[in-house]
């Protein structure tokens, strides 16, 4: 209300996100609430329909012919009119009603519109419907002709304020990226489709793992997403890369782009610096919350020499002073975790004792790639920003570091609306 004004409140929408919850002494919380506001009364509203469920189709679309399933609907409307629609047609008087052909959106996909159809008289339009076998005549004399309303592809009931046909993301779903509050893309696609058109700008100021931008990108919308954590930004970058590859380009505003920027971030918020630095090398943070990390800030997973098995790179990020003890400690963690490689990312240049300690750790050998890699590696932020990378086997063949988003096939996402319906209200 404070942002948009109470007069621009339109709906509370309920999304049923799970089937049941067992909660002692209260009703099980199984839904989320979505508040629908508009900036002005002249808002974009695209008509969206939800597919009929199977039981509804069987109950109401009871008839079937070579063109598909259909139900029988009225060809008259309430009230008497004195014009063309109130006159007899084919010898049948609408009596206390008037003739009312169905709206265009109720006509099947195969209906052929004659030239000038929309400007024809009501009874002429009925003639056209009859010619195209869309009128069912009564078996007994004196009955009223009825419209054969076919079940069309994409037809259904207009969206309601209770959403029950979009399930939550299941545990094993390819879409799940491991973010605790991740929403289904289908839910965001429905919201974006209803309230915007292609080329419009979508804003999500609390974007988390980027479901909004993934949906907006599929639907050919422009987008701006905002989050305060570099962990979320890293998740979004990986999601966009996995799903769209080079089909999408964007700018990140607010990230450090130089060593002085990184130093300022390290001094103001060491945890954000840590997540940002891990994102530079494509590593997954081990701890999303502040707390004990057992000497491990992040991990990168890559394919081992044995098919089906994986190796790991362990990363330690240092925002402040670094010394030989840090390298020695990392060696112990690498041994404890049976890891292939350990990496320290620091703001400061490594000292000579740190380099000596790293060299004595030896090498990790990959028979698959026929190469040896330093067991302990020291990288500065300046190194990484200038293009230097961790010396390790390629990781493109596995997606175990970050859960990979599904690859977008390139087809435009379904608009979830009846053809030609982009209405304003």
Structure in words:
There is one protein chain. With 425 residues, the chain is α+β, with helices and mostly antiparallel strands. Helix content is 23%, strand content 22%. The radius of gyration is 31 Å and the shape is elongated. Mean pLDDT is 87; it is low at 413-425.
This entry's quaternary arrangement is single chain
Percentage of residues in helical conformation: 10-25%
Runs with pLDDT <50, length 5+?
413-425
Helix-strand category: alpha+beta
Q: What fraction of the residues are assigned to beta strands by DSSP? A: 15-25%
Shape: elongated
The overall pLDDT, averaged over residues, is 87
* Radius of gyration, in angstroms, nearest whole number: 31 Å
Distance between the termini: 20 Å
Record the strand order, biggest sheet: 15-16-17-18-21
Q: Using DSSP, what is the number of strands?
A: 22
Q: Treating each run of at least 4 consecutive H or I residues as one helix, how many helices?
A: 10
Largest sheet: 5 strands, mixed
């Amino acid at each position: 209300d404070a942002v948009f004004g109470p007069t621009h409140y339109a709906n509370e929408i309920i999304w049923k996100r799970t089937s049941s919850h067992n909660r002692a002494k209260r009703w099980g919380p199984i839904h989320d609430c979505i508040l629908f506001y508009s900036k002005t009364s002249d808002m974009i509203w695209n008509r969206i329909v939800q597919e009929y469920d199977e039981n509804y189709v069987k109950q109401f679309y009871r008839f079937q012919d070579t063109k598909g399933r259909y139900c029988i609907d009225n060809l008259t409307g309430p009230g008497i009119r004195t014009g063309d629609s109130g006159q007899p047609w084919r010898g049948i008087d609408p009596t206390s009603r008037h003739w009312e052909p169905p709206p265009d959106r109720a006509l099947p996909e195969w209906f052929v519109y004659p030239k000038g159809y929309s400007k024809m008289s009501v009874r002429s339009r009925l003639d056209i419907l009859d010619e195209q076998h869309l009128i069912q005549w009564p078996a007994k004399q004196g009955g009223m002709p009825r419209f054969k309303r076919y079940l069309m592809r994409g037809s259904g009931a207009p969206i309601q304020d209770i959403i029950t046909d979009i399930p939550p993301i299941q545990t094993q779903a390819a879409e799940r990226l491991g973010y605790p509050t991740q929403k289904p893309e289908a839910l965001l696609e429905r919201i974006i489709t209803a309230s915007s058109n292609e080329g419009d700008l979508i804003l999500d100021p609390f974007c988390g793992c980027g479901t909004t931008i993934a949906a907006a990108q599929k639907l050919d919308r422009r987008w701006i997403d905002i989050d305060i954590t570099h962990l979320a930004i890293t998740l979004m970058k990986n999601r966009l890369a996995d799903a769209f590859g080079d089909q999408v380009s964007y700018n990140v505003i607010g990230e450090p782009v130089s060593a002085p920027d990184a130093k300022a971030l390290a001094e103001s918020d060491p945890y954000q610096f840590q997540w940002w630095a891990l994102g530079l090398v494509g590593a997954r943070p081990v701890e999303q919350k502040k707390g004990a990390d057992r000497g491990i800030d992040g991990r990168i997973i890559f394919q081992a020499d044995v098919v089906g098995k994986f190796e790991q790179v362990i990363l330690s990020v240092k925002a402040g002073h670094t010394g030989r003890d840090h390298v020695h400690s990392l060696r112990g963690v690498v041994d404890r975790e049976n890891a292939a490689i350990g990496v320290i990312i620091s703001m400061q240049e490594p000292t000579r004792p740190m380099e000596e300690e790293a060299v004595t750790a030896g090498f990790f050998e990959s028979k698959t790639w026929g190469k040896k890699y330093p067991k302990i590696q020291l990288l500065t932020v300046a190194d990484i920003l200038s293009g230097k990378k961790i010396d390790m086997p390629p990781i493109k063949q596995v997606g175990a570091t970050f859960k990979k988003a599904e690859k977008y096939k390139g087809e435009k996402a379904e608009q979830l609306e009846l053809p030609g319906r982009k209405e304003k209200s």
